[in-house]
Design brief:
Helix content: 10-25%
Distance between the termini: 57 Å
CATH superfamily of the largest domain: Pseudouridine synthase
Number of domains: 3
Shape: globular
Strand content: 25-35%
Radius of gyration: 22 Å
Number of helices: 6
Order of helices and strands: EEHHEEEEEEHEHEEEEEEHEEEEH
Number of strands: 19
Length: 314
Protein backbone atom coordinates (compact mmCIF):
# COMPACT_ATOMS: atom_id res chain seq x y z
CA UNK A 1 0.00 0.00 0.00
CA UNK A 2 1.40 3.41 -0.93
CA UNK A 3 1.43 6.59 1.05
CA UNK A 4 -1.79 8.50 1.46
CA UNK A 5 -2.39 12.16 2.26
CA UNK A 6 -4.93 14.09 4.25
CA UNK A 7 -5.36 17.76 3.32
CA UNK A 8 -7.21 20.07 5.70
CA UNK A 9 -7.96 23.73 5.09
CA UNK A 10 -8.69 25.60 8.30
CA UNK A 11 -11.86 27.64 7.98
CA UNK A 12 -12.67 30.81 9.90
CA UNK A 13 -15.27 28.90 11.94
CA UNK A 14 -12.74 26.26 13.04
CA UNK A 15 -11.30 26.37 16.50
CA UNK A 16 -7.57 26.76 15.93
CA UNK A 17 -4.75 26.33 18.46
CA UNK A 18 -2.01 23.70 18.84
CA UNK A 19 -1.35 21.64 15.73
CA UNK A 20 -1.48 18.24 17.48
CA UNK A 21 -4.69 19.09 19.32
CA UNK A 22 -6.37 20.42 16.17
CA UNK A 23 -5.46 17.30 14.19
CA UNK A 24 -6.69 15.03 16.98
CA UNK A 25 -10.09 16.75 16.78
CA UNK A 26 -10.27 16.51 13.00
CA UNK A 27 -8.83 12.99 12.63
CA UNK A 28 -10.46 10.85 15.33
CA UNK A 29 -8.94 7.60 14.03
CA UNK A 30 -5.55 8.80 15.25
CA UNK A 31 -4.61 9.15 18.89
CA UNK A 32 -2.90 12.39 19.86
CA UNK A 33 0.34 10.49 20.53
CA UNK A 34 0.24 8.98 17.02
CA UNK A 35 -0.21 12.43 15.51
CA UNK A 36 2.62 13.86 17.61
CA UNK A 37 4.89 11.10 16.31
CA UNK A 38 3.92 11.84 12.70
CA UNK A 39 4.63 15.54 13.23
CA UNK A 40 8.04 14.80 14.76
CA UNK A 41 8.82 12.50 11.81
CA UNK A 42 8.28 15.42 9.42
CA UNK A 43 5.07 14.06 7.90
CA UNK A 44 3.04 17.24 8.48
CA UNK A 45 3.27 20.47 6.53
CA UNK A 46 1.49 23.80 6.98
CA UNK A 47 1.25 25.82 3.77
CA UNK A 48 3.90 23.50 2.26
CA UNK A 49 6.34 24.20 5.13
CA UNK A 50 7.54 21.14 7.04
CA UNK A 51 6.59 21.39 10.71
CA UNK A 52 8.39 19.47 13.47
CA UNK A 53 6.90 21.10 16.57
CA UNK A 54 3.69 19.56 17.90
CA UNK A 55 2.89 22.82 19.72
CA UNK A 56 2.91 24.92 16.52
CA UNK A 57 -0.16 27.19 16.46
CA UNK A 58 -2.49 26.94 13.49
CA UNK A 59 -4.90 29.61 12.27
CA UNK A 60 -7.66 30.27 9.75
CA UNK A 61 -6.67 29.84 6.08
CA UNK A 62 -3.77 27.51 6.91
CA UNK A 63 -3.60 24.39 4.77
CA UNK A 64 -2.34 21.31 6.61
CA UNK A 65 -1.03 18.33 4.67
CA UNK A 66 -0.57 15.09 6.58
CA UNK A 67 1.35 12.24 4.97
CA UNK A 68 -0.09 8.95 6.18
CA UNK A 69 2.47 6.13 6.04
CA UNK A 70 1.42 2.63 5.02
CA UNK A 71 0.08 0.66 7.97
CA UNK A 72 2.65 -1.45 9.78
CA UNK A 73 2.48 -5.22 9.64
CA UNK A 74 0.48 -6.56 12.55
CA UNK A 75 2.46 -9.73 13.05
CA UNK A 76 -0.87 -11.50 13.53
CA UNK A 77 -1.80 -14.67 11.72
CA UNK A 78 -5.26 -15.09 10.17
CA UNK A 79 -7.41 -17.49 12.18
CA UNK A 80 -10.65 -19.10 11.04
CA UNK A 81 -13.12 -18.15 13.78
CA UNK A 82 -16.25 -18.34 11.59
CA UNK A 83 -17.41 -14.84 12.47
CA UNK A 84 -20.85 -14.04 11.06
CA UNK A 85 -20.64 -11.31 8.42
CA UNK A 86 -23.99 -9.52 8.19
CA UNK A 87 -23.01 -7.23 5.31
CA UNK A 88 -19.91 -6.11 3.46
CA UNK A 89 -18.86 -3.98 0.51
CA UNK A 90 -15.60 -2.35 -0.58
CA UNK A 91 -15.71 0.19 2.28
CA UNK A 92 -16.81 -1.78 5.33
CA UNK A 93 -18.06 -4.97 6.88
CA UNK A 94 -20.79 -5.36 9.51
CA UNK A 95 -20.29 -8.39 11.73
CA UNK A 96 -21.96 -10.20 14.63
CA UNK A 97 -19.29 -10.68 17.32
CA UNK A 98 -19.57 -13.87 19.40
CA UNK A 99 -19.12 -14.00 23.17
CA UNK A 100 -15.69 -14.69 24.66
CA UNK A 101 -13.77 -12.94 21.90
CA UNK A 102 -11.50 -9.96 22.62
CA UNK A 103 -11.68 -7.34 19.86
CA UNK A 104 -7.97 -6.60 19.48
CA UNK A 105 -4.67 -7.83 20.96
CA UNK A 106 -3.58 -6.54 24.36
CA UNK A 107 -0.69 -7.26 26.68
CA UNK A 108 -2.94 -9.04 29.16
CA UNK A 109 -4.55 -11.35 26.57
CA UNK A 110 -2.84 -14.13 24.63
CA UNK A 111 -5.83 -15.91 23.07
CA UNK A 112 -7.46 -15.42 19.65
CA UNK A 113 -8.91 -12.01 18.85
CA UNK A 114 -11.53 -10.61 16.52
CA UNK A 115 -8.78 -8.99 14.43
CA UNK A 116 -7.24 -12.40 13.67
CA UNK A 117 -10.63 -13.73 12.66
CA UNK A 118 -11.24 -10.76 10.38
CA UNK A 119 -7.84 -11.18 8.72
CA UNK A 120 -8.95 -14.66 7.68
CA UNK A 121 -12.38 -13.63 6.37
CA UNK A 122 -11.96 -10.17 4.82
CA UNK A 123 -9.80 -9.26 1.84
CA UNK A 124 -8.75 -5.86 3.11
CA UNK A 125 -8.75 -3.97 6.39
CA UNK A 126 -7.96 -0.39 7.28
CA UNK A 127 -4.70 0.05 9.16
CA UNK A 128 -5.16 3.65 10.22
CA UNK A 129 -6.37 2.64 13.67
CA UNK A 130 -2.87 1.53 14.61
CA UNK A 131 -0.51 -1.41 14.31
CA UNK A 132 -2.56 -3.77 16.48
CA UNK A 133 -6.06 -2.63 15.55
CA UNK A 134 -6.54 -2.89 11.76
CA UNK A 135 -10.04 -1.94 10.69
CA UNK A 136 -11.33 -1.54 14.23
CA UNK A 137 -13.47 1.60 14.55
CA UNK A 138 -15.13 0.79 17.90
CA UNK A 139 -15.19 -2.12 20.34
CA UNK A 140 -17.37 -4.38 22.44
CA UNK A 141 -16.41 -6.03 25.72
CA UNK A 142 -15.05 -9.57 25.50
CA UNK A 143 -18.31 -11.20 26.63
CA UNK A 144 -20.71 -8.79 24.92
CA UNK A 145 -22.12 -10.18 21.68
CA UNK A 146 -23.46 -8.36 18.69
CA UNK A 147 -23.07 -5.89 15.92
CA UNK A 148 -19.88 -4.08 14.97
CA UNK A 149 -18.76 -2.17 11.88
CA UNK A 150 -15.24 -2.67 10.53
CA UNK A 151 -13.50 -0.32 8.08
CA UNK A 152 -11.88 -1.74 4.94
CA UNK A 153 -10.02 1.40 3.87
CA UNK A 154 -8.61 4.47 5.55
CA UNK A 155 -11.22 6.94 4.27
CA UNK A 156 -14.04 4.80 5.57
CA UNK A 157 -12.21 4.46 8.88
CA UNK A 158 -11.89 8.23 9.26
CA UNK A 159 -15.52 8.93 8.40
CA UNK A 160 -16.90 6.20 10.67
CA UNK A 161 -14.63 7.22 13.55
CA UNK A 162 -15.85 10.80 13.29
CA UNK A 163 -19.47 9.66 13.54
CA UNK A 164 -18.71 7.68 16.70
CA UNK A 165 -16.85 10.65 18.16
CA UNK A 166 -19.71 13.02 17.33
CA UNK A 167 -22.24 10.53 18.81
CA UNK A 168 -24.30 10.43 15.64
CA UNK A 169 -24.23 6.62 15.42
CA UNK A 170 -27.42 4.83 16.47
CA UNK A 171 -26.51 2.13 19.02
CA UNK A 172 -29.25 -0.13 20.39
CA UNK A 173 -28.69 -3.04 22.78
CA UNK A 174 -30.83 -5.82 24.22
CA UNK A 175 -30.23 -6.94 27.79
CA UNK A 176 -31.84 -8.94 30.58
CA UNK A 177 -31.56 -7.41 34.04
CA UNK A 178 -32.51 -8.44 37.53
CA UNK A 179 -35.83 -7.21 38.93
CA UNK A 180 -38.35 -4.79 37.44
CA UNK A 181 -37.32 -1.14 36.93
CA UNK A 182 -39.66 1.40 38.51
CA UNK A 183 -40.37 3.00 35.14
CA UNK A 184 -41.04 1.17 31.86
CA UNK A 185 -39.19 3.93 30.00
CA UNK A 186 -36.48 6.18 31.43
CA UNK A 187 -33.37 8.17 30.65
CA UNK A 188 -30.31 7.61 32.83
CA UNK A 189 -27.86 10.50 32.97
CA UNK A 190 -25.10 9.65 35.43
CA UNK A 191 -21.39 10.46 34.94
CA UNK A 192 -18.98 7.53 34.75
CA UNK A 193 -15.36 7.35 35.85
CA UNK A 194 -12.86 4.73 36.93
CA UNK A 195 -13.58 3.13 40.28
CA UNK A 196 -10.84 4.31 42.70
CA UNK A 197 -11.16 1.06 44.65
CA UNK A 198 -10.79 -1.18 41.57
CA UNK A 199 -9.02 0.20 38.50
CA UNK A 200 -10.55 -2.51 36.28
CA UNK A 201 -14.08 -1.28 37.02
CA UNK A 202 -16.02 1.83 36.17
CA UNK A 203 -18.53 3.51 38.45
CA UNK A 204 -20.96 6.41 38.65
CA UNK A 205 -19.14 9.25 40.41
CA UNK A 206 -19.33 13.06 40.35
CA UNK A 207 -15.58 13.73 40.06
CA UNK A 208 -12.97 12.45 37.60
CA UNK A 209 -15.77 11.25 35.35
CA UNK A 210 -17.38 11.88 31.97
CA UNK A 211 -20.98 12.56 31.04
CA UNK A 212 -22.84 9.35 30.29
CA UNK A 213 -26.43 9.05 29.02
CA UNK A 214 -28.47 5.90 28.36
CA UNK A 215 -32.14 5.47 27.51
CA UNK A 216 -34.04 2.25 28.17
CA UNK A 217 -37.44 0.71 27.50
CA UNK A 218 -38.80 -2.44 29.14
CA UNK A 219 -39.64 -5.02 26.45
CA UNK A 220 -40.87 -7.84 28.65
CA UNK A 221 -41.17 -8.68 32.33
CA UNK A 222 -40.47 -12.12 33.80
CA UNK A 223 -40.49 -13.33 37.42
CA UNK A 224 -37.44 -11.63 38.93
CA UNK A 225 -36.11 -10.31 35.62
CA UNK A 226 -36.84 -7.80 32.83
CA UNK A 227 -35.71 -7.59 29.24
CA UNK A 228 -34.75 -4.09 28.11
CA UNK A 229 -34.00 -2.23 24.93
CA UNK A 230 -31.19 0.23 25.72
CA UNK A 231 -29.99 3.07 23.53
CA UNK A 232 -26.54 4.53 24.13
CA UNK A 233 -26.45 8.31 23.71
CA UNK A 234 -22.80 8.43 24.80
CA UNK A 235 -20.17 5.70 24.61
CA UNK A 236 -18.37 5.25 27.91
CA UNK A 237 -16.52 2.10 28.94
CA UNK A 238 -18.97 -0.46 30.43
CA UNK A 239 -21.69 2.22 30.24
CA UNK A 240 -24.80 0.00 30.19
CA UNK A 241 -23.37 -2.34 32.80
CA UNK A 242 -22.56 0.55 35.13
CA UNK A 243 -25.87 2.35 34.60
CA UNK A 244 -27.90 -0.81 35.22
CA UNK A 245 -26.04 -1.43 38.48
CA UNK A 246 -26.55 2.24 39.40
CA UNK A 247 -30.36 1.98 39.16
CA UNK A 248 -30.37 -1.28 41.09
CA UNK A 249 -31.01 -3.64 38.17
CA UNK A 250 -27.68 -5.25 37.27
CA UNK A 251 -27.38 -7.26 34.07
CA UNK A 252 -27.98 -10.98 34.58
CA UNK A 253 -24.67 -12.82 34.61
CA UNK A 254 -22.57 -9.68 35.10
CA UNK A 255 -20.63 -10.66 38.23
CA UNK A 256 -18.35 -7.63 38.00
CA UNK A 257 -21.33 -5.28 38.36
CA UNK A 258 -23.52 -7.21 40.76
CA UNK A 259 -25.48 -9.41 38.37
CA UNK A 260 -26.93 -12.77 39.40
CA UNK A 261 -25.27 -15.69 37.61
CA UNK A 262 -26.84 -18.86 39.01
CA UNK A 263 -30.59 -19.43 39.36
CA UNK A 264 -32.23 -22.13 41.42
CA UNK A 265 -36.01 -22.41 41.39
CA UNK A 266 -38.29 -25.20 42.48
CA UNK A 267 -38.96 -27.75 39.76
CA UNK A 268 -36.93 -25.97 37.05
CA UNK A 269 -33.50 -27.44 37.67
CA UNK A 270 -31.93 -23.98 37.65
CA UNK A 271 -29.96 -22.09 35.04
CA UNK A 272 -26.32 -21.00 34.97
CA UNK A 273 -25.66 -17.68 33.22
CA UNK A 274 -22.09 -17.81 31.93
CA UNK A 275 -21.73 -14.19 30.79
CA UNK A 276 -23.52 -10.85 31.00
CA UNK A 277 -26.78 -11.01 29.04
CA UNK A 278 -25.91 -7.99 26.90
CA UNK A 279 -26.19 -7.94 23.11
CA UNK A 280 -25.40 -5.11 20.68
CA UNK A 281 -28.56 -5.45 18.62
CA UNK A 282 -28.80 -2.59 16.10
CA UNK A 283 -26.33 -0.15 14.59
CA UNK A 284 -27.10 2.78 12.30
CA UNK A 285 -24.68 5.20 10.61
CA UNK A 286 -24.04 7.23 7.46
CA UNK A 287 -22.32 4.93 4.99
CA UNK A 288 -18.87 6.49 4.39
CA UNK A 289 -18.92 5.74 0.67
CA UNK A 290 -22.59 6.08 -0.25
CA UNK A 291 -23.53 8.97 2.04
CA UNK A 292 -26.80 7.24 3.01
CA UNK A 293 -28.00 6.27 6.48
CA UNK A 294 -27.78 2.50 6.86
CA UNK A 295 -29.12 0.41 9.73
CA UNK A 296 -28.22 -3.18 10.54
CA UNK A 297 -29.33 -5.76 13.09
CA UNK A 298 -27.55 -8.74 14.68
CA UNK A 299 -29.65 -11.77 15.65
CA UNK A 300 -29.71 -12.71 19.32
CA UNK A 301 -27.19 -15.43 20.28
CA UNK A 302 -28.14 -18.93 21.41
CA UNK A 303 -27.29 -18.46 25.10
CA UNK A 304 -29.42 -15.30 25.27
CA UNK A 305 -32.34 -17.08 23.59
CA UNK A 306 -31.94 -20.03 25.96
CA UNK A 307 -32.16 -17.73 28.95
CA UNK A 308 -35.24 -16.05 27.46
CA UNK A 309 -36.82 -19.48 27.04
CA UNK A 310 -35.91 -20.49 30.61
CA UNK A 311 -37.55 -17.33 32.00
CA UNK A 312 -40.65 -17.85 29.89
CA UNK A 313 -41.05 -21.50 30.85
CA UNK A 314 -40.43 -20.72 34.52
Amino acid sequence: MGKDREVIKIEAKDKAGRLDKFLAERLPSFSRSQLQRLIEEGRVKINQEEILKTSREVKAADIITLEIPPPEKTGLEPMDLEIEIIYQDRDLAVINKPAGLVVHPAGTHDGPTLVEGLLAQLDNLSGIGGKLRPGIVHRLDKNTTGIMVVAKNDRAHQKLSRQFKERSVKKIYRTIVGGHPEHDKARIEAPIGRDPADRKKMTVRPENSKRAVSRYQVLEKHPGFSELRVELLTGRTHQIRVHMEFIGHSIAGDKKYGGQASLRTAGSGGFEIKRPMLHAWQLGFIHPGKGEFKEFEAVLPEDYLSFQQYLTSD
